[in-house]
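Case study 2.
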Amino acid sequence: MPDKPLEISLNMTAKELYDANPEYKAFQEGDAQPMGVTFQGYDFPTSNMGKAIFHYSDDSFKIDQVVTILAMDKVTSEQRGLNKITVDFFFDTTDNGISDEDAYQKMMAFFKELQGKGWTYAKSLSEPRLSPKDSFIFATKEGGSDFNLDYTYPLNFEQWMQLSDLQIWQLRHGTDVSMNIRINRQSDPETGNRHYLISLDIFDELELIRQIIPNNYDESLTKEYSKLYGGLPEARLFFETKAIKMGLKIQQNQPDYTLPLVLKETGIDTSKFISIDPYKITYEEFMQRSEAGEDMTPYYENQPTTKPEITSQAKGRCLAGQPCPKSGYWFTLAKANSRAYFKQGDIMPDYPNNQWGEVI
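Prediction:
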């Protein structure tokens, strides 16, 4: 294995990636897919794992024990940069595995390094506004969601062991780079050895927006975002109602942030996101009264006295397993890219073991 770490950065092209790392040519792997897409990257055997440095803005971090680097190259697009890169690596250096205590220390050290480099928790507009400590309670209690765990909360070892064996943290650096960190904690059934596979999904602002919006939309991306934005207060109320029932306190002054591309293309300033006050009404009550035609403006925070345009669009609600009440396109926040056409009377699908909870 070369001594020089492999150099990667977001939005470099596949050619630039390979040209910058000639020492790793033997490990290159490209997999052509339909529709002019090729997965580009590197594959290393666990007996000879690689090293990589990921560059972003004017900073970087190093990753050891790398087994896979994978990026999607949209060769038919004018923008051929790799705007999403996945890096898989192990905490353990041999097949003997690693102790939970050592894995905990390594992850906490990595988190501390990222905090020192300016990475913050990437809370989305539909997530409950909780303190870092309460985000852990919400992530580990039945009915909560481990997708909402703030990575800046200093877990102790006992709390570390309470996390799901498949745990995800959401981070961002400014508004131009996002990163999801996923741990997969497993025990070898034959030897009992403990293994931790860590995956870093690193992506830019455009890829983040594509993850928010279903990829089979009929209109422009910006129009679809404008439509979706109107339903986000209800999604947040759904989770904040759960949090209040757990005895957690909603941080109503917790700020949101704006993606520059969203502001530029739609005029929506998400840093001034309008929320529904969870202390005035529950999610169930809000939906019942809203669907009955009542003006719900008084229950919004930081809301003008007139009903805003974002709440005036037609919308519907149906639980998984129930018949579709009206023909049309439907989607659920419980599954990415779920938007599909359903006829009236069709049974709406369920997506068990999702990160959101109840499928609506």
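Residues 305-314 have pLDDT under 50 and may be disordered.
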